[in-house]
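hey m, so remember when u said the tokens were messed up on ur end? i reran from scratch. heres the input so u can diff it against urs
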Amino acid sequence: MTSGIDLRGNARDWWANAAGRYHRSQTPEVGAVLSFPASGGMRSGHVAVVEQVLGPRHILIHHANWEGPGIRKGSVTRGISVVDVSPNNDWTRVRVQTGLAPGIYGREYPTNGFIHNRAPAEPVLTAGRAGPVELAAAAEMSPHLARHLSVSAQVFAAD
């Protein structure tokens, strides 16, 4: 409710359910929702709202139902630090502050990216006559799809 994004159900489904309804990206912004897919102990996934962007790889969030030292499951915690640890600096892997004490982080978690409370931009694919395929809205897609398109462009360029 804090983000204004009207999605319901398991957090693991939010990324897919936001497609075509909300802008999605790999860039954090205040008010955006960080989406975690189902993984390990998070069978239902997880979502968190960005409170503050401290740098290109560091944000503060608030979220609920995340246990840790001094945090009771079911409570909402604010000012929780999250750092991007993805190899490509694209927020696909993060570490989340485990409790209320600063500087203590848990294991790495995969993420989908950020869901923003605005209309999605339409991705437009264009192909030059002799050039590679270009993507006009690369930030709109998942890193997985971007990788597939990149490989496809390389295959076409080699022909």
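this time it looks ok to me. The beta strands are 23-25, 33-36, 46-55, 58-64, 76-84, 93-97, 105-110, 113-116, 125-127, 133-135. if urs says something different then somethings off w ur setup not the seq
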